[in-house]
Design goal:
The complex is a heterodimer of chains A (468) and B (482). By secondary structure, chain A is α/β, with parallel strands linked by helices. Helix content of chain A is 36%, strand content 14%. Chain A has 14 helices and 15 strands. In chain A, the strands form four sheets. Chain A has a seven-stranded mixed β-sheet with strand order 2-8-7-6-5-3-4, with helices on both faces. The longest helix of chain A is centred in the last third of the chain and has 38 residues. Chain A is globular, with a radius of gyration of 26 Å. With 482 residues, chain B is an alpha/beta fold. Chain B folds into three domains: 34 residues, no CATH class; 257 residues, Type I PLP-dependent aspartate aminotransferase-like (Major domain) (Aspartate Aminotransferase, domain 2), CATH 3.40.640; 123 residues, Aspartate Aminotransferase, domain 1, CATH 3.90.1150.10. Chain B has 14 helices and 13 strands. Chain B has a seven-stranded mixed β-sheet with strand order 1-7-6-5-4-2-3, with helices on both faces. Chain B has a four-stranded antiparallel β-sheet with strand order 10-11-13-12, with helices on one face. A two-stranded antiparallel sheet of chain B has the order 8-9. In chain B, helix 8 links the parallel strand 4 and strand 5. In chain B, helix 5 crosses helix 6. Classes of the chains: A alpha/beta (468), B alpha/beta (482). At the A-B interface, helix 1, helix 2, helix 3, helix 4 and helix 5 of A face helix 1, helix 2, helix 3, helix 4 and helix 5 of B.
C-alpha cells in the first residue's frame, strides 16, 4: 500500500513518513488480519479495493500534520482551554445562563450505553433511550402544560423556526407577526431560513417591557399564520399573553410561544395562556454553556396538531406479551419515510441533551424546581435593587422580570462592559449589539449561582465604572 | 420497567440547592404565576442514578455491542475526547463572551479550536472555507441548499429543481424542498450508480443543482463523478456533496477536487463523535470559491497578531443559521480526534473501513443476495430476497441478530433495493467481531431454510419482544399523563 498522492501545497504542517503498522489505536487489524481478509476478498492489496477511484480523482493535496499521542493532544487542548477565562464572574445571559450542572447528570450521560448508541430504530435494543426520552417528553408536557412534546430539535432558535413552519402548514397562511421582544438572535435566524420563501414578516416595536398590545391589534389580519411571542422576553420582562393569544385565535392564527423552561417553576405556563405551539432552549435544564452548543431545542403542542409537529416522538405501546414498552411513533411525518413531503428535514436531534435535561429535572424534582426558579427570581430582584441605587443608572421597572433585566447607563454599554471586564466581571450584554438606539442599555442576568457578595461587588464595580 | 414518575416519593429531592443569602423578594402578581406545580417526579440522587443506570442497561451501544448500521457509521468513540469536552475552560464558556467588546481575549482558546478545525476540514475535503455552525447533517444540507439558492439569486438565475439520485438519504429531498426547490429523482443503473443517460434527460437550465453522496448509499464510488460535475456545471448548477460517506475516501479523493462546490460533513460519523442515542451531531458545511461569500455569519478570523476574532461583516452572507458557532462540544471532540490521527491515521481509517466492509461482503455473498456484485466501499448492500422466498424478511434477520447481542445492520434502506440489508462495520471493529457477525448471519440463513417460522418469535432474550407499533401510532400515548 502506498501513502497516496501528496503534493505539498498546504500551509498545514507536513506529515512524517507514513508508517503502516501498528495502526492508529482505533483500528484492530494486524498485518496478518489484513492478509487473511484480502485473501478472502480475492484482492492483492487494499489499494485494489479502490478501483473505482481513478487517478483523475486523486487528491490534489492531502497535507495534514502527523498524528499525536493522546497525552500530546490532551496537553495541547488543555492549554487552549486555559486560554478561555473562567475568571470573569458571569452576569451575562441573553437566553443562555450560568446554572449549576449536577455531577450525577454528567456522570449518567457519560455512560457508554447512552452516548454511544444510535437513534432507537430497533426498539428491543433501545428501551433505555426510548423510555428516557418518553420521560423527558412527559416532563416538558407538565412544565409547559401542553399535550404533546417531541424528543428534541437542535436548539431554541431552530425550534422556533420549526414551530413557525408548522403554523404555516396548519393555517395555510403566509404572514408572521413577531413580537419585538423575541430574542434578536432567533429573529435573525428565522429570517435567514425564510429568505428564499414567500412569507411576510412584521414585527411589533421593541420596548423594554411587555408586549405592545396596540401594535398587535393593528398588525393581526386574516392572512396571519402565526403570532410569535416569548416569555420572559429578551429583556427579561414577564408577561401574561392570554389576551394576545385570544385575539390571534379569533382571527384563526396560531400562537407560538418561546419560553425559558426554568422560569416555569414559577411563571404562568404557555399552556394555561392558550398557546398552540411551545418551544424553548433547554440549556437552563442542567446543560453546560459549552460555548454555544450542543444545546437542546424542545417543542410541544396541542394534541390536534401533533401530526404536523416535526422531530421524533416516542410513544408507549405493548410488546407481544403485553408488557409496556416504547417506540418511535407517528413516523409517517418524517423524512426517512416521506422524503420531500416530510414535516421537516430533521433527522439527528439532540437526544443525549434531552436525556441529560430529563435527569436534571428528575434530580431537582417537583419542589426543587419551584425553589430553584424562586432562587433565580430572588437573586435577580436583589441585584436589580442594588444596581438601582447607583447614581446615573436607571433600572427599568415597567414590568416584572424573572432572572434578567435591563439597565440604562449614563454611557455606552460596551464601554462599561469593557471596563467591567478589567474589574473581573462579564457585566451583561450590551443591547446596542442588536438594537439601534439602545447603545446605553445593558442586559443583566443573575442566576442561583451568584452569591450576595458577588452581587454587591458587581454593584460596587459598576458604581466606579459609571462615575462621571 | 417503572417510569421515574411511578417511583416518585413525595418529599424527596436529588439535588441540594444553595440556601438563599439574599432577602426573600416580594411575589409577582398572581396573573403571572402558574396555578399548579409541574408534576415532576421526586427522587433521591441514588433513586435517579439507579433508574437511569438501569435504563442505560436496556440499550445496545458501540461500547458494548457490534453495531454495523449502514450509512450511520457507528465507529468507536474515543474516551479522551469526552474528557477534552468536559474541561471547564470549554464547558463553562458563555457563547456571548466574544461578542462583548474586550471579551474576545477571554475566548481565544475556543475560537482557535473553531479556526483550526475548519482548516483541517478544508484540507481533508479540498474546500476553501467551512461554516462550523450547522448542528447536524440535515441542518448542513439545509444550509448548503440555502447557499445554492443565494448563489442563483445573486446571478439572477431562474432555477426550480434539485436533482437527487433515488438512492439518496431522505434528508436530501426534504432539505431541498424546505429550501424552496422541487425535486427530480434520478434512478440508479445496474451497477448501482446514478444512470448518466437518465440524468442527461432531466438536465435543463432550471436545474439549481445536484445532491449526491459519494460513495453513494449503495456503497459504490461513482467513477463518472467528474463527468456528472461537468454536466451539472454546464447549466450553472451546483454540485452538492452529502458527506455522510466521507469516511470511505479520506486521503483517496477529495470532493473539492472532483467538482463539488459545497459539502456537508457529519462529524458524528467520519470524525468519531458519539451519536448520543440520536444526537447531538454536527454538520459543518464547506464551500469552494463560488459560494464563499454567501457563508453564514459569524466567521472566525485570525488577525495579524494571531488574535482570533468573530467577523460578521459579509454583506452577501445568508445570515444566521444557528444561535452561535455550532455544536462546539462536538466540534472540539472531532478536532481532538483529527489531531490524534493526523494525516496517516485519517487515511488508515478509510482504508480499513473499506477493507472490513469488503471482507464481510466476501463472506456473505454466498448466502445473501448481493445487490451489486462488485467491490464496495465502506458498506456492503445485500437483499434478503433469498430468505424472503422462504418466508423470512430483513426485519426477522434483524431480530435474530438482536438475540445474538449484535445490533442489526440498517434494514429497508436504501429504498432502491427490496428488503435491503446495509452493513457498515467501520474500521474500528476487529476481524473477530466481523467473523462472529458473519457466523450469526450464516446461522440466520441456515435457520431460514430449516425453520422459517422460528423467526417470528424473535427476539427472545431482550427485556421486551417485538412491540406493537401499529397500536403506538393509533392510540398515541406520548407522555405519562394521558
Amino acid at each position: 500500500m502506498t501513502a497516496g498522492n501528496r503534493p505539498t501545497s498546504s500551509s498545514l504542517a507536513s506529515s512524517k513518513t507514513f508508517q503502516e503498522f501498528p495502526l492508529n489505536p482505533y483500528i484492530a487489524n494486524t498485518e496478518t488480519d489484513v492478509k487473511d481478509m484480502l485473501r478472502s476478498i480475492g484482492a492483492k492489496s487494499i489499494d485494489d479495493l479502490f478501483v473505482d477511484i481513478k487517478p483523475e480523482h486523486a487528491p490534489r493535496s492531502f497535507n495534514l500534520p502527523a498524528g499525536l499521542s493522546e497525552y500530546e493532544v490532551m496537553r495541547k487542548l488543555t492549554g487552549l482551554a486555559l486560554k478561555n477565562s473562567n475568571e470573569l464572574v458571569p452576569f451575562i445571559g441573553g437566553g443562555f445562563y450560568d446554572h449549576y450542572v449536577p455531577a450525577a447528570s454528567s456522570a449518567l450521560i457519560s455512560r457508554g450505553e447512552f452516548y454511544t448508541a444510535y437513534t432507537p430504530y430497533q426498539p428491543e435494543a433501545a428501551q433505555g433511550t426510548l423510555q428516557a426520552l418518553f420521560e423527558f417528553q412527559s416532563m416538558i408536557c407538565t412544565l409547559t402544560e401542553m399535550d404533546v412534546a417531541n424528543a428534541s430539535v437542535y436548539e431554541g432558535g431552530t425550534a422556533l423556526y420549526e414551530a413557525m413552519m408548522m403554523a404555516i402548514r396548519i393555517t395555510n397562511r403566509t404572514r408572521i407577526v413577531i413580537d419585538g421582544g423575541v430574542s434578536p438572535i432567533y429573529r435573525k435566524l428565522i429570517k435567514s431560513y425564510t429568505h428564499n420563501l414567500h412569507f411576510e414578516f412584521v414585527e411589533t416595536p421593541v420596548a423594554h417591557g411587555q408586549s405592545d398590545r396596540a401594535a398587535f391589534e393593528k398588525l393581526l389580519d386574516q392572512n396571519t399564520a402565526a403570532v410569535i411571542l416569548q416569555n420572559p422576553n429578551f429583556f427579561g420582562a414577564v408577561d401574561d399573553h392570554s389576551d394576545i393569544i385570544a385575539k390571534a385565535h379569533a382571527i384563526g392564527a396560531l400562537v407560538v410561544e418561546s419560553v425559558y423552561p426554568l422560569s416555569l417553576g414559577l411563571l404562568k405556563t404557555p399552556g394555561a395562556m392558550g398557546a398552540d405551539i411551545v418551544t424553548g432552549e433547554g440549556q437552563s435544564l442542567g446543560l453546560p454553556l459549552s460555548f454555544g452548543g450542543p444545546y437542546l431545542g424542545f417543542m410541544a403542542t396541542r394534541r390536534k396538531y401533533m401530526r404536523q409537529m416535526p422531530g421524533r416522538i416516542v410513544g408507549e405501546t405493548v410488546d407481544g406479551e403485553g408488557r409496556r414498552c416504547f417506540v418511535n411513533t407517528l413516523q409517517a411525518r418524517e423524512q426517512h419515510i416521506r422524503r420531500e413531503k416530510a414535516t421537516s428535514n430533521i433527522c439527528t436531534n439532540v437526544a443525549l441533551c434531552a436525556i441529560q435535561a430529563g435527569i436534571f429535572m428528575a434530580l431537582v424534582g417537583k419542589e426543587g424546581f419551584k425553589n430553584l426558579a424562586r432562587l433565580n427570581f430572588d437573586k435577580a430582584e436583589f441585584a436589580r435593587q442594588e444596581i438601582a441605587k447607583i447614581k446615573g443608572v436607571e433600572v427599568k421597572r415597567s414590568s416584572p422580570t424573572f432572572n434578567e433585566f435591563t439597565v440604562s447607563l449614563p454611557k455606552d454599554a460596551s464601554d462599561v462592559v469593557e471596563a467591567m471586564i478589567a474589574k473581573g466581571f462579564a457585566a451583561g450584554f450590551p443591547l446596542g449589539r442588536y438594537y439601534q438606539g439602545m447603545e446605553k442599555y445593558l442586559l443583566v442576568a443573575v442566576t442561583e449561582k451568584r452569591t450576595k457578595d458577588e452581587i454587591l461587588a458587581y454593584a460596587a464595580a459598576l458604581k466606579e465604572v459609571v462615575k462621571p | 420497567m417503572k417510569l421515574i414518575f411511578e417511583k416518585s416519593v413525595s418529599g424527596r429531592q436529588g439535588l441540594k440547592l444553595p440556601v438563599s443569602d439574599v432577602p426573600v423578594q416580594g411575589v409577582l402578581p398572581g396573573k403571572y404565576l402558574r396555578s399548579s406545580d409541574a408534576q415532576l417526579p421526586e427522587s433521591s440522587e441514588l433513586d435517579v442514578v439507579r433508574h437511569f443506570t438501569q435504563l442505560s442497561q436496556r440499550n445496545f451501544s458501540v461500547d458494548a455491542n457490534f453495531y454495523p448500521l449502514g450509512s450511520c457509521t457507528m465507529k468507536y468513540n474515543p474516551k479522551f475526547t469526552e474528557k477534552v469536552a468536559a474541561l471547564s475552560g470549554f464547558a463553562e464558556l458563555h457563547p456571548l463572551l466574544p461578542q462583548l467588546r474586550g471579551g474576545e481575549k477571554y475566548a481565544q482558546g475556543a475560537l482557535e479550536v473553531l479556526f483550526e478545525a475548519e482548516r483541517w476540514l478544508c484540507e481533508i475535503t479540498g474546500m476553501k472555507a467551512f461554516t462550523m455552525q450547522p448542528l447536524a447533517g440535515a441542518h448542513g444540507e439545509l444550509t448548503g441548499i440555502m447557499l445554492v439558492a443565494a448563489y442563483h439569486k445573486a446571478k439572477g438565475n431562474k432555477k426550480k429543481y434539485i436533482i437527487v439520485p433515488d438512492s439518496s438519504h431522505g434528508t436530501n429531498p426534504a432539505s431541498a424542498a424546505i429550501a424552496g426547490y422541487e425535486i427530480i429523482s434520478v434512478p440508479s443503473d445496474k451497477k448501482g450508480v446514478m444512470d448518466l443517460e437518465k440524468l442527461k434527460s432531466v438536465l435543463t437550465d432550471e436545474v439549481a443543482g445536484l445532491m449526491m453522496t459519494c460513495p453513494d448509499t449503495h456503497g459504490v464510488f461513482n467513477s463518472q463523478i467528474t463527468e456528472i460535475s461537468r454536466l451539472i456545471h454546464s447549466v450553472d448548477g451546483i454540485m452538492y456533496y452529502d458527506g455522510a460517506n466521507l469516511n470511505a475516501t479520506m486521503g483517496r479523493c477529495r470532493p473539492g477536487d472532483v467538482g463539488f462546490d459545497v459539502v456537508h460533513l457529519n462529524l458524528h460519523k467520519t470524525f468519531a463523535t458519539p451519536h448520543g442515542g440520536g444526537g447531538p451531531g454536527a454538520g459543518p458545511v464547506g464551500v469552494g470559491e463560488k459560494l464563499l461569500k454567501f457563508l453564514p455569519v459569524s466567521r472566525v478570523v485570525k488577525g495579524p497578531q494571531g488574535i482570533f476574532a468573530l467577523n460578521y461583516d459579509y454583506p452577501d452572507s445568508i445570515g444566521y443559521i444557528a444561535s452561535f458557532y455550532g455544536a462546539f462540544g462536538v466540534i472540539l471532540k472531532a478536532y481532538a480526534y483529527m489531531l490524534l490521527l493526523g494525516q496517516d491515521g485519517l487515511k488508515q481509517t478509510s482504508d480499513h473501513a473499506v477493507l472490513n466492509a469488503n471482507y464481510i461482503l466476501s463472506r456473505l455473498k454466498g448466502a445473501y443476495q448481493l445487490s451489486f456484485d462488485r467491490v464496495c466501499m465502506h458498506e456492503c448492500l445485500f437483499s434478503a430476497s433469498k430468505q424472503v422466498a422462504r418466508g423470512v424478511h430483513a426485519i426477522d434477520i434483524a431480530k435474530f441478530l438482536i438475540d445474538k447481542k449484535m445490533h442489526p445492520p440498517t434494514v429497508y434502506f436504501p429504498l432502491t433495493v427490496k428488503e435491503a440489508i446495509m452493513i457498515e462495520p467501520t474500521e474500528t471493529e476487529s476481524k473477530e467481531s466481523l467473523d462472529a457477525f458473519v457466523e450469526a448471519m450464516l446461522e440466520a440463513d441456515a435457520l431460514s431454510q430449516k425453520d422459517p417460522e422460528a423467526f417470528h418469535a424473535l427476539p427472545k432474550t431482550m427485556p421486551i419482544s417485538r412491540p406493537d407499533e401499529t397500536r403506538a401510532a393509533r392510540e398515541v400515548k406520548v407522555n405519562c399523563f394521558g
